[in-house]
Every structure is written in structure tokens, then in C-alpha cells.
């Protein structure tokens, strides 16, 4: 009986650590996604700017 109890306790401890790790990972992922969105928006603006720049200088 005590053997199973020990296994169960070890399993529960492992699960808690795993859940804590998962939460941190999810938080990290959210921050990363937010960063990616900002980066994509920035890239679009930059590309639009480059096009205007190229068009402007090709006319000259």
C-alpha cells in the first residue's frame, strides 16, 4: 500500500511542476505572439514606405 502511495505522491508532485511549467510556457507564448504581431505590422509599414520611396525616386 505504501509503495502505491509513494508512487502517487511522486506523480502528483511531477504533475504540479508540469502544470507550473505549462503556465510559464503559455505566458511566454502569448508575449511572443504579441511581439510577432508588432513585428509584422512594422514590416508592412516598412515595405509600404520602401515602395513609395522607390516609386518616388524612379520618377525623378
Description:
The chain has 60 residues and is an all-alpha fold. The chain is 97% helix and 0% strand. The protein contains one helix and no strands. The chain is rod-shaped, with a radius of gyration of 26 Å. The chain starts with a helix and ends with a helix. The mean pLDDT is 94.
Task: Quickly describe the structure.
This protein is mainly α and 60 residues long. The chain is built from one helix and no strands.
What topology does this entry show?
Blueprint (H helix, E strand, L loop, with lengths): L1 H58 L1
The share of residues in extended strands comes to under 5%
Radius of gyration: 26 Å
Low-confidence stretches: none
Alpha-carbon distance between the two ends: 88 Å
What are the salient characteristics of this protein?
60 residues; mainly alpha; 1 helix; 97% helix; rod-shaped
